[in-house]
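Technical note accompanying the year-one report. For the benefit of new consortium partners, we illustrate the data format agreed upon in the data management plan: each record pairs a sequence with a structure-token string. No post-processing was applied to the example shown here.
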Amino acid sequence: MTELELQIPFSGIDPKGKMKFGVLLEMFQEMADVDASKFGLSVRQTLDNDITWVLRNYRVSLERYPCKDDKALKIKTWHEPYRKLFSLRSFRLWNAAGEYLGEASTWWVLLDVVKMRPMRLDRNDLYSFEAEKVLDEFPPEVKIPELTTPQIEEMWKVRWQDLDVNDHTNHAVYFNWALDTVPFEVPELLSPMLVEGEFLHPVPRVRVKAQTEEVPNDTGREFLHSLRTEDGTLEYAKFHSLWR
């Protein structure tokens, strides 16, 4: 388990004084890398053995959205095995004053980059199956309904700086594409308090079509998002966001 306090950068604040969602995800990535490095399980370390981590599911659930007045975030992270195939990495976050802000859960698979297939964690010497067991009950798996009637559609270009060490688009970029494809007034007035993602295929250096559909919700604005190839034939990822 690792716990650190990270300053919210000035560039990580949007025009309304709220923390940019992608910057929050980048903080989670930094925390995960620090914690995984203790076990020899960071991406840079596993790649030496022709193995890498692949993200499958992500959920961020916030009690209060971080803002500039929080100044810094205290983040705690740990990992534990889930169904012998997934590594469940969890996060908890507080502001500098100790106010609890929310949590995140991420599900990862170890991928053999030579054979291009997932590896069972209980049969891999790299992954310690004595990993920390913190949660009494695992969070529910992410299951996102299919988007059927897109109301907004935008094209995004994968830039060189969007790529990670696996030469694929970093997962934080996926979220940015999805959350930026909402009506203009939504981020002006509301914050994404619940965001879920299912990652289906890696995105190489291509153009990506982002589609968004609003669904009824009495407590806020709720959306389904889909990221697809330019011709729409392959779905890279799908997301669900609830704004309040």
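Partners are asked to follow this layout when depositing records. The CA atoms of residues 18 and 67 lie 4 Å apart.
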